[in-house]
Amino acid sequence: MSQSFKVNINESFDLDISETDISNLNAIEVSPSEFHVLYDNISYKTEIVTSNFNKKTFKVKVNNNTYNINLFNELDVLIKEMGFELGASKLVDNIKAPMPGLILEINVEIGQEVQENDSLLILEAMKMENVITAPRDGIIKSIAIKKGDAVEKNHLLIEFEA
After folding, report:
1. Which terminal Cβ of the chain has fewer Cβ within 10 Å, N or C?
2. pTM for the structure as a whole
3. pLDDT for 105-149, tens place per residue?
4. Contact 114/95 with Cβ under 8 angstroms?
């Protein structure tokens, strides 16, 4: 059974590639990072500029045009479809109320740099004080609430700079 890959190029173009497609590619290694590729009788000069094998991200130059490439195997696609992306908490750009409650305390200010697990605010819900912490390192972009506000579940509380 041939494994297939989803390929995203410059975060705007997606395509599917199989192991068969890769094995049929006519590529000659010129140096450890440079290749001469022949595809559909057209010659391409390629260079791997940067690579991160753990994140499956690559920057590739093809005939002097640079492309950012992300690879996803079948497991990566399944994990994403199920909503269990690895490192998804690191991509969080905003904090929403996990439950209805009352804002007792806000421990941050706009523009403040915070570290992962720093206390951002305290939300009282069902007579319990819940400390809401930072899911990642970042800078506070905006605070949508103030001390004493009553919030509903999924109410926007804090936004991080991208």
Report:
1. N
2. 0.48
3. 999 999 999 998 899 999 999 889 999 999 888 999 999 999 999
4. no
Domains and CATH numbers, the chain: 4-81 (no CATH), 92-160 (2.40.50.100)
Tell me the two tokens of residue 151.
Answer: 């919030």
Which pLDDT score, from 0 to 100, does residue 89 have?
47
Identity of the amino acid at 119: S
CA distance 120 to 96: 12
DSSP state for residue 154 in the 8-state scheme: T
CA distances from 13 to 32, 49, 68, 74, 124 (A): 27, 20, 11, 18, 45
Q: Calculate mean pLDDT across residues 43-61.
A: 91
Token representation of residue 50: 């940067």
The one-letter amino acid code at 126 reads: M
